[in-house]
Amino acid sequence: MAPALPRVGRRTVEALLAANAKDLGERSLVLVHGRYAPGAPPRFTVTLDGEARRVRVRDETSVLGVVAALHEHRSTATSSDVLVVTTGVDDEQLGWDVRGRAVRRKTLTVENAEVVLQRFGATALDPRMYRERWLLEALVEAEPAEDGWPRVGGVLTRDAALRALTAERLGLRAVHASSGQDGQVTLDADTLLAWSRTPAGPRRFAELGATERAELKKWLAEVAGPAVPVLLSLAEAGLGHDALPLGLLGAALRDPAAQPDTVLALGGLFGQVMPRRSELAVFTDAVEGTLTRWIADARTSHDARLRVVAVLHRADELADKAALTPGLTASRFLPSSFTAQLRRTVAEARRSPAAGEAALADLLGHALAGLRPDHVQAAETAVRVARWLSGPEPAVTGVATAVRAHVSDWGWVDRALTVLWAGDPDGDLETGRDLRALYEQARERRQRLDQEFARRLVSWAAHATAQYPDGCLVVENVLDTVVRPLTGQAAPLLLVLDGMSSAVAAQLGEEAERDGWREIVPRPEPGQSPARLAAVSMLPSVTRVSRASLLAGEAADGGQSAETSGFTAFWKRRRKAAALFHKAAIGGEAGHALSHELMTALASDEVVGVVLNTIDEALDNGRHGRGTTWSLADVTHLRELLAGARSYGRPVVIVADHGHVLERGSRADAPTAADGAESARWRTGDVAGEGEIAVRGPRVREGGGAVILPWREDIRYTGRRAGYHGGASLAEVTVPVLVLLPAGEETPKDWVPLPRELSTPGWWRTRAAGDGPEPAAVTAARLATPEQSTPARPAPSEGAPATGARPSARTEAAPPAEESLGSRVVSSEVYAAQKEYVRKAPEAKVVAAVVDALVTAGGTMSPAALAAAISATGRVRRNIEGFVATVQRLLNVEGYPVLGFIDGGHAVKLDVPLLRGQFLPEPEEGEAEEAASHKEEQA
């Protein structure tokens, strides 16, 4: 049997024509020993010596066929046209009549090595390639149709040839982001796993010849890692598209005690290509690494998210099909395992906070936690509420203390209850049941606080006035007490967020800090910690009386005109110009977020007030969707106003006129039947019913000074809405006040920063299981009071028995306290040397306080908390960012990042191990023994 003819493609023909271009000037026939590839173009154009030549290729198996092709060419073609005939007929059969008209007067033999050399523009081939016929044939056959092979200009190495062949055979250039900086295809597990998800990628590999597949698999294992052979084996078996999902399921065999049924089920999914356990482990690790990177991209890219979701859902389908789901609940990637871990977290939180925290730590370690913030929020909230419930029962001791406790603690409970009420975002019944149980338990305790507060509100309202508020900040005193002291440098911007509750204020305050704002509060009395400000609304807590009183600086009522005249009159009495903007006067024309009048006022020295109604309007019509969160962007114009205030260096006061309660299911669908209903949450009358109080006094501005207010949030006198206000609950009566400065601005005199560690209740802060009751950062952030000096030990009385014996060290005194890390650092020789290069370096005790505060806080603190810790040394740092930069020059020896900002400048981080290594290096073993011996001798 005659050997098979070599396969000849267009690129081979072009290479032969280029190699024999000089002879084609006289002759137009080229005879080639071989068979023209089926499907290759029979006509095309090439450029030879700068001239375009038309080429026609004929594949003939007999002498007559070759002669006929030649005669047809001579009769129809032009002088520049070239005829290429591929044939298996030998030269003796063709005869001189045909051969005499052909280039080089003979049939040309295809030398693949020469073709490859020419097509790559190389000067030589790697000697190893001459021994690999399959590689040379593949390179000739696979050359890209449009651009050809890349030109190398030197020796074509085997690796370069295999890299080019692999990219073309597998279609890797189509894989997004698979090319490196030099334009070469990146060959690694990431690229190949992404390739496995392309529509035709795995099929292209499966269609290659057996020898080529085996050789490519062997080479790719060397350059792309040991996970690749498993991937390519799956592609050969038609399972390439499921390679990533199958790799995830391979985690089921990580447990050495995996049941035989699990092994069999997994083997059923992999089929005949089931790898050994060690190979599968390597492949699973590679898949998880790739998916971890994809998930990180999915946080900012919708397309990346769809790609990840498709893989993970397919993995869940396969796991369910093979009954593997129960054994994969600990997986860090499967959606089903995320759901199982979410269920476990909420159920464990019901059992105990510690158990909930441990389960939450596992959930936060799941790869999908970053893509499912609503689910994580529900789990975190369940654990937080469990912590609050496990604490001592809070009590209401008075209106002033209750309002302050609400803005700093109980309002956060309201925030949590909103999340629990919304339930599981996916509607999982089991998770929803446990969330509802926690909600009911917390709501019952929270309702007891409202009941006791309402009882004390009755007696307080009977005599409280703006002049004698009985320890409270009342809403009509906010301008004089909070806003006016800020007018010393730049005029403040007052933002009135109608209906903002303490729960909403907590969310807006958090986001404002992330956006580069610092919250400040008046300096507290010695021994007290800074706390967020809160006022008491007018009664009933409705806009008409509470907002008018806030803006007029005195008890008042009325609409926008009364508010505007009252606001300007208040500041006129204090020799300040002022402007107040409502609704239509806020927004600008096309291309401008804010109106020209408002921007002009912000650029002036006027005190500017702006009323924003977004929250109140959302409660009226329920436009805020699930209503579990509020952001700065949710409040129309708020972000633009903050940006304007930052531009002009204005401090900002964000204040409500009253709070609100949400509709969480009234006791009946119909309104509560009652006489004298004037609004959703207040009425007139003489007798208060269940869940109501009768209030009268000088600050009651409706009903002739006497009204009936519900303290239960499920009582309403009008139709159903998303939320209500006017009643006597803490959420309605408490008026949160946020005072913000742009980060970097100097804190005004008699004001101090309020770090997030102090503005957030301890039970809210997520911490790892096993932590103490209060995170160390809080302790470090508290403003310390002057230490009490230890009284000197009294001298022995004259009648005391004397002894001539010298007291031993064991009985003389307790051992001294160990020197702090900060003190040891500033006492070191390295620190002394660093200090020589820093002008006006802070005192050693201040730097030591910085180090000790950060160590106590676990290495990370907010800038405001660090400023508070430093102030305990008696040194107030108003520009904390500049101060930290100075301390960096002291601690960052040779540029190593011992101290620095993280999280976009919102936190300060100390690398404690690096600090020890730079300033307190461990002595050599011999030096340590000598030092210990010296200490023993002295003792």
Q: How do the strands and helices of this protein lay out in sequence?
A:
Elements: E1 7-8, H1 10-19, E2 29-33, E3 35-36, E4 43-48, E5 51-60, H2 63-76, E6 82-87, H3 91-99, E7 108-109, H4 112-119, E8 124-125, H5 133-141, E9 155-156, H6 158-170, H7 189-195, H8 201-206, H9 210-224, H10 228-236, H11 243-249, H12 260-270, H13 277-298, H14 302-321, H15 335-351, H16 353-364, H17 373-390, H18 399-422, H19 429-461, H20 478-483, E10 493-497, H21 502-514, E11 517-522, E12 533-536, H22 543-552, H23 560-573, E13 578-582, H24 596-603, E14 607-612, H25 614-621, H26 638-647, E15 652-655, E16 661-662, E17 692-696, E18 706-710, E19 723-724, H27 730-733, E20 734-742, E21 751-753, H28 756-759, H29 776-781, H30 809-812, H31 821-826, H32 829-835, H33 844-856, E22 860-861, H34 863-871, H35 880-891, E23 899-902, E24 907-910, H36 912-919, H37 925-938
Helix pairs in contact: 1-4, 4-5, 11-13, 11-14, 13-14, 15-16, 15-17, 15-19, 16-17, 17-18, 17-19, 18-19, 18-21, 22-23
H/I helix tally: 37
The end-to-end span amounts to 102 Å
What is the typical, i.e. mean, pLDDT? 87
Largest sheet: 8 strands, mixed
Q: What class, by secondary structure content?
A: alpha/beta
In one word, what is the shape?
elongated
Low-confidence stretches: 768-777, 782-814
Radius of gyration: 40 Å
Beta-strand residue percentage: 5-15%
Number of strands: 24
Helix % is: 40-55%
